[in-house]
Each structure stands twice: as structure tokens, then as C-alpha cells.
Write the C-alpha cells for this entry.
Amino acid sequence: FLTPHPTSHLRCQKCLADLIPTSSIISKGFTGRHGRAYLVSPPPLSTFMAGGNGAETACCAQGDIPNTVTHEARPRQLVTGAHTVSDISCRRCESVLGWKYVDAAEDAQKYKVGKFILETKRIVKGAEWDAGVGELETRMEGDEGDGEFDSQDEEECEDLFSAIWTPQLARRRRKERAFDR
């Protein structure tokens, strides 16, 4: 679980295991095997707590993403050149989520070493709504409010990019914002 700050984070699309805070996203302009992908940096271990009880946990090795398994490193020819990468999968459901950059042949690509690719089709964005309790931003049914995409709303742009935007989700968020005022 994330620290007590209300924040959004990425989860496994299949089993909803928490992976990483969205603040760890370095770039949204990468491509994975199945389309768009995020380049992310692993968070410090202190970002995560065991069971929400305040005690830090060694949920992963230093430099890895929590709740994932890093597989054997292999050379792979990518669009940006030759790299050595390790596939990463969800610790809970074993879905392949992306890969970790272990080495890069070209000096210009070395900045990626130690960072991860998370494929947007393999993850979903979640948020902390109550102190320490994660709740998936689900698609809600309803007909109140305007269901058109608002390009000026940062959350809606992020949802559209993540392929989870729906008119129902937009209406629900707008209703929650009005209720909070």
C-alpha cells in the first residue's frame, strides 16, 4: 500500500495488485510490445508499507517495482537499439507487465538502465480515496452531468491516454468534485 498521502498509482490490470505511484512515471511516450507504455523509475522502498499498518516492508529488492517478479536478463533488439532487458510480471497473477532495462549498447540509451517499461494495456490507474484504502477508479453507470470529454481536465486526459475514459467515469468524477465543494 502507498504511504498516507492521497495519490494515484498504477495497478496490474488483471488482479489489481498495487505496483507503483504515478509520480514514478518518467515518460508516457514509450512503446512496448503491445502498444503504448510508460517509462517508470522504481520508487524508494520507504514509499510502501506492509498491510497499511505503518511498518515498512521489503516487498521487493531495491531498484525493483513492488509486487513484481524480475525474470532472467536477455539481449533484445528494440526500436532504440540493442538492450539487455528482464521481463517483469505480476507477483500475484503472473501477467507479464513489461520489462526492466538492465543494460544498453549505446551510450545515449544508458539513461534507461535500472528503469522499467509498463505497458498501458497491462496496467490500470488507481487512487487512494480513504486513508490507506485503495479503490480502483471504476466505470460507473449513471446519466447525471455532461458525458463529453473535457480536454482541459488533466484527469480526463490521463484517463483517455490510459484507455479507461468513459462518459460514466467523467460524470462520476464531476459529481464527486461538486459534492466536495
